[in-house]
Amino acid sequence: MNDALVIAEPDVDEPIVSRDRTHQKDSRSRPKRQPPYAVIVHNDESHTWPYVIELLQRVCGLNLQKASLLTSTIHHAGRAVVWTGAREVAELKRDQIRAFGTDFYPEIPVKFPLGVTLEPLPGD
Question: Where are the beta strands (DSSP E) in the chain?
Answer without folding.
Answer: 37-42, 79-85, 116-120
